[in-house]
Amino acid sequence: MAEPTVDIGWIHLGLASALILVAVALSEFQRLGLAKRLIVGALRAVVQLTLIGYLLVWLFDTRRWYFVIGVLLVMVVTATFAATGRQPGGGSMQRRLRPICFAAILIGSGLTIAYVTAVVVDVTPWYNPRYLIPLFGMIVGNAMNGAALAAERLRSEMEHTRAQIEALLALGASPQQASAEPARRAIVAAMIPTINSLTVVGVVSLPGMMTGQILAGSAPTLAVRYQLVVVFMMAGATSLTATGIVRWYRRTFFTAAAQLLPREPV
Amino acid sequence: MIGPGRSAAATADAFTLEGIGLERAGRRVLADVTLALPKGGFSTLIGPSGAGKTSLLRLLNRLDDPACGNVRFFGLPIGEFPVRALRRRVGFVFQTPTMLPGTVGENLRVASMLGAEAKTEASGPTHAALALRLAELGADYADRVAADLSGGEKQRVALARALMTDPQVLLLDEPTAALDPEVAEQLMGTLRRLRESTGLTIVMVTHRLSEARLASTYTVMLEAGRVVEAGPSERLFREADQPRTRAFIAAGGAGGQHG
Q1: Residue spans of beta strands (DSSP E) within chain A
Q2: CB contact under 8 A, A172 and B118
Q3: Per-residue pLDDT tens digits for B53-78
Q4: With an 8 Å Cβ cutoff, are B84 and A173 in contact?
């Protein structure tokens, strides 16, 4: 028996923006130099979210599976560029990583969303955008962070343990055996934020999705069950994605003859 | 009659190199290197730093491949051996020994574990004990933490680890560069005795001319990526053909100090 959610009109939204003005005023007062970035950031948020709002309305109305899939792919591509764009090591390194990152996020997130919508939440029709888009957004966001952490950690571990990797290769190890330790550390590094958030969820943090659902009128117990599904699927998607990144990315550090390639000039 | 004569000549050498060229980051490292390293010999590669000694050594167990030219191993093109099996027949000891986590025994076991899929071979405690003995480390070293050992001890562990694969050839890249002269001399003694007792073919890069003169049977002088001359060590150190070799030896390897 949910009570109706209080509507936020444009006037009330305008009133809410006063809170940004408070931040701007405080920045000016303390000479933090943040005013411009705050205002630009707030305007971007308004424009981006408003456009997304209308896009979602349109998607929910048209209900065409290929539009929904198209939006999901755009999310994966955007996440790929965000995850690889922050990698150090220059353009050639990023180009080398990009297709791997795309495949890992696509497969990690794709398998997870397929399982969740087909088995756990039982979404009908299967492409129902009201479920698919927000769930996939959360999955991809986490997979993206996992991918970026795994790739960066693998690169730096491979860099720092070159002597050990070559020592193992010289004993007849395969590239997989020689890079087992960097690979292990990269996956651990990618998983730690997810494991941390599993540990503190509900105690230190009340997740945004759950809060939103409660504000929208859901029973807190239902919101909690949804949130649990979300944290589980984030753990699944992150580990799948990180594993894909590590398995495919580490190959690019070796030649076909099991030779460690020279350091990339940075 | 080319057949028998040629194959007999080919197998007298562990490695034959022909027209080897190599570049790194646009810089020429080796150019037109043609060379034969005798089987069962103790060969040393000498020359000023930057001459390409280490780059050449790394081609012999395919840690790198040359840009052009042929490397033959016991008469066969080196690329015909599966690379991992090749590396178990051609061991490599690096300039700076890298210890894997754990004890010395665990370091040795990694080497035999990696071979489990390649080929059946003795990998039990007997083998580790033998490797330690050949490297002239006491059996009690097996239980010591590898990371806590001294530089000289680590290099001996690296040697024992390389011996765990039962190699026919051992490549050593300036194994004594980081050691005190006294410790370095002891390690050289170990290598000499190792070759005498096992018949192992040894190829070593060194910047200490005394090591090349005392330990090796065959010496190759390299400069700027090219072979200046090669021959039996005894002759080369007594009366080298090339003035550049004579000058390098007379100067005691000046310019060959690793910098």
Answers
A1: none
A2: yes
A3: 999 999 999 999 999 999 999 999 99
A4: yes
Q: CA of B92 to nearest chain A CA: how many angstroms apart? A: 6
Residue ranges for chain A with pLDDT beneath 50: 1
Which chain B residues are within 8 Å of A169, Cβ to Cβ?
63, 87
Percentage of residues of chain B with pLDDT beyond 90:
83
Residue B206 has pLDDT above 50, yes or no: yes
DSSP A235-259: HHHHHHHHHHHHHHHGGGGB-TTS-
Report the gap between the CA of A195 and the closest CA in chain B (Å): 27
Order of strands across the sheet with B13-24?
Answer: B27-38, B13-24, B68-73, B76-77
DSSP string covering A2-13, please? Answer: PPPPPP--HHHH
- CA B254/CA B172 separation, integer angstroms: 21
pTM across the whole model: 0.85
Rounded to a whole number of angstroms, the distance between the first and last alpha carbons of chain A is 60
SS3 per-residue string spanning chain B = CCHHHHHHHHHCEEEEEEEEEEEECCEEEEEEEEEEEECCCEEEEECCCCCCHHHHHHHCCCCCCCCEEEEEECCEEHHHCCHHHHHHHEEEECCCCCCCCCEHHHHHHHHHHHHCCCCCCCCCHHHHHHHHHHCCCCHHHHHCEHHHCCHHHHHHHHHHHHHCCCCCEEEEECCCCCCCHHHHHHHHHHHHHHHHHHCCEEEEECCCHHHHHHHCCEEEEEECCEEEEEEEHHHHHHCCCCHHHHHHHHCCCCCCCCC
